[in-house]
User: What shape does this take?
Amino acid sequence: MITSALPAPADPRARRESADASATAWALAARAGDADAVDHFVRALHRDVLRYVSHLCGDPQAVDDLAQDTFLRALGSLHRFEGRSSARAWVLSIARRAVVDGFRHAAVRPRRYDGSDWEAMVERAQPRGVPGFDDGIVLLDLLEALSEERREAFVLTQLLGLSYEEAAVVSGCPVGTVRSRVARARAALTELVV
Assistant: This one.
């Protein structure tokens, strides 16, 4: 059984690397048949998967379903996980494919809304007075102004904290491309803010 008795490092990068190492260790233990490790593996990565999927997917109602689909796929493929990359990068690449498959599925079977004035209903359902809520809306609006590739690279590296190498694995492109996309995303966001 794997335990994390050591205190978390103070440096954010060291904390992330420690969390990645733990998640990878849980994945490898789960692969070996440790039932408790499966639970720890999912808990360790659930928040990151939700955040990533919510940035990729335009439908907030589909986020939980896509995250669940991601973990079902990951657990079904766990026997092939060898630990060559971090478990987080591996699961986020699965999440990316789950979202793409979700888009494909939605394109084949589009849903229609037959209710009245859905926009007013959605606006009334939005939380008000939550600290940082307005900032989050502004950030989402700014991110929407970016191209899909730049937004994905920016979210992976700047919001989820993946290294450029891990983001390249998730995105399926070279590290230099990820660096370029992040730099251009930063420049575009700076122009939009100023």
Notes: The two ends are 52 Å apart (CA to CA). The chain has a mean pLDDT of 82.
